[in-house]
Amino acid sequence: MSELRVPAVEATEVMEGRFQVIDVRSPSEFAEGHVPGALSRPLLDDAQRAVVGTTYREKGAAKARLAALEQVAPSLCPFLLELAEVARSMSRGRRLAIMCWRGGERSRNVVLLLALIGVHAVRVTGGYRAYRALVVEGLSTWRPTMPVITLYGHTGAGKSALLRALATIGP
Prior knowledge:
- By secondary structure, the chain is α/β, with parallel strands linked by helices.
- The chain has one domain (8-144): Rhodanese-like domain (Oxidized Rhodanese, domain 1).
- It has helices spanning 11-14, 27-32, 46-59, 61-72, 76-89, 105-116, 127-141, 159-169, and strands at 8-9, 19-23, 39-40, 95-99, 121-124.
């Protein structure tokens, strides 16, 4: 079987702001970290993702794909219609960029399904993992133009009160 070609962009292009990122990872994956401004529209919830992962480990990729289809099927139409509505509401010149963990199965399949209903989206090559690697790499070479202070402490220690007080003083 030949591989279907799916339009894709690199994580660096997504960071330029021309795309509305739709993160199709599970809620817990999104909560662990995401692209600023990304919309969370999970294809699978956490429990469904666990079922697919277990099936993959125990029975292989083909059976895991079938398990994913079984999990997704009941909510697929509303899911796609919601993404189509997001696409329609965007300003001219912007597109949806679908992101999953590695830019693989989930994002690829969502882009293909959106194309079937006339929504032109792209997948993010390498997914959130590639985006995160770019951010980490950028931080390793970042040289701030002014001193940076990390504020940390236990809950209730007064961090927010200190920030509010500093804000009244000004820059």
